[in-house]
Specification:
single chain, 258 residues, alpha+beta, 6-stranded mixed β-sheet, globular
Length: 258
């Protein structure tokens, strides 16, 4: 089953991309059960975040400016006093950013559930603003620095940013195989850790093409253990679970002939 564009018609008219992004991690986990060696297991993660919302009119004129406050009396107890702390420089109603997360985590149970690999599926919300992209890339970089092999899977055709390229830049090493214009949709795997007698940063990027099958990606579990993970299998199954092929056929049959 070739890769479809989930963000433009006709796919966008068949079902929202969120449905597929929720289903795909679950299907990846089911596929991984047959691939992972004993002692390893995978779990899905799916969460739709919300962007930061600030009410500019919510500044409080009297916040912490008067009244009685509960403060520590330095003796282990709590005392009530009329002392007031300095007024804050900022007092504004705000919801801290909570970004989308669609992912699969792979753990090594032999070492107290150690996280060894992660598959991060990019959503439009991860690419739509500079702070969103920075947050996503920083999360991936933190995982890589802890020795976790990270695979970024990006099907978002409507946002022309390459977060794998941004990750490599943050780690201090450009990937020359990306060229002057990195692809908008891609898979990029990155790992950092021991390789023989050296410690290496290694990467495996692959461009994706709408209408072509998805590739096999290296899923690193340890220094010398890797699993060939075929994205196409889980992609196809998730599409069938949501009746996407059937819906597309029905839509095509209902369209008037040109």
């Amino acid at each position: 089953m070739p890769l479809r564009d989930h963000f433009r018609p006709p796919m966008a008219n068949v079902g929202p991309w969120e449905e597929f992004h929720f289903m795909w991690p679950a299907r990846m986990v089911i596929h991984l059960r047959a691939l992972l060696p004993d002692g390893y297991y995978a779990g899905p993660q799916a969460h739709m975040g919300s962007h930061v919302a600030i009410d500019a009119g919510a500044y409080e004129e009297n916040v912490l400016s008067s009244g009685r406050y509960t403060v520590d009396d330095n003796g282990g107890g709590v005392a009530t006093t009329a002392w007031a702390p300095p007024r804050p420089s900022v007092a504004v109603e705000v919801e801290l950013p909570d970004y989308d997360e669609y992912a699969v985590r792979i753990y090594d149970e032999r070492f107290d559930r150690q996280l060894v690999a992660a598959i991060e599926i990019v959503s439009p919300g991860n690419k739509d603003r500079p702070e969103s992209r920075s947050d996503f890339v920083a999360k991936c970089a933190a995982l890589v620095r802890k020795g976790v092999a990270v695979s970024i899977v990006d099907l978002v055709t409507t946002k022309h940013f390459n977060l794998y390229a941004d990750l490599m830049e943050l780690l201090g090493h450009d990937d020359p195989t990306l060229g002057d214009e990195p692809p908008a949709i891609y898979v990029g795997t990155c790992r950092w850790g021991p390789w023989g007698k050296r410690t290496l940063l290694q990467a495996w990027p692959q461009a994706l093409t709408v209408g072509q099958p998805l590739p096999i990606v290296p899923l690193w579990l340890s220094e010398d253990r890797v699993v060939p993970f075929d994205l196409e299998i889980s992609y196809q199954q998730a599409s069938e679970d949501l009746d996407i092929p059937k819906k597309l056929r029905a839509r095509a049959a209902a369209e008037p002939a040109a």
